[in-house]
Amino acid sequence: MEALLVSGEDVHGYAIAQAARKPTGSVYPILARLESAGWLESNWETGEQTSGVPRKRFYRLTPNGTAGVREVLLERRGALPSRPAQANPLHRPGWGIA
After folding, report:
1. Which end of the chain, N or C, is less packed with Cβ atoms under 10 Å?
2. Sorting pLDDT into bands at 50, 70 and 90, what band is 38?
C-alpha cells in the first residue's frame, strides 16, 4: 500500500505486487477487500486492447484509504526500534578467530 501512497497516481495491480514482493495471487484479493472497504478505487485501462494481453486494472487510494495507510505505516514504524541496536562490545570481527 505504501507504493500507492508514495506514487500519488494510479498504479496497476502487478506493479503493486512487485513493490510488495508478494505473489499476485495474494495481492489481488487484498486489493478487492480494500476496494470493498472504501480504501481504494479502481478503473480499467482504456484504449486499444492488444491481442492476447489482458487489460490492466489501475488502483488509487481514496481519501479514507490515504488516511488509513498513513495510520498503519505510523503504527508499524512505532513498533520498530527508533534507533539501531548498539553493537555487541564482545563481538570482534576477524578471520574466524575470536
Report:
1. C
2. very high
Q: What pLDDT, on a 0 to 100 scale, did the predictor assign at position 74? A: 86
d(CA 40, CA 33): 9
Q: Are the CB atoms for 3 and 15 separated by under 8 Å? A: yes
For domain 2-46+55-78, give the CATH number. 1.10.10.10
With 0-12 / 13-18 / 19 or more C-beta atoms within 10 angstroms meaning exposed / middle / buried, residue 1 is: buried
* pLDDT tens-digit series, residues 68-85: 888 888 888 876 555 555
Share of the chain above pLDDT 70, in %: 79
43 and 58 in contact (C-beta within 8 Å)?
A: yes
Domain boundaries, the chain: 2-46+55-78
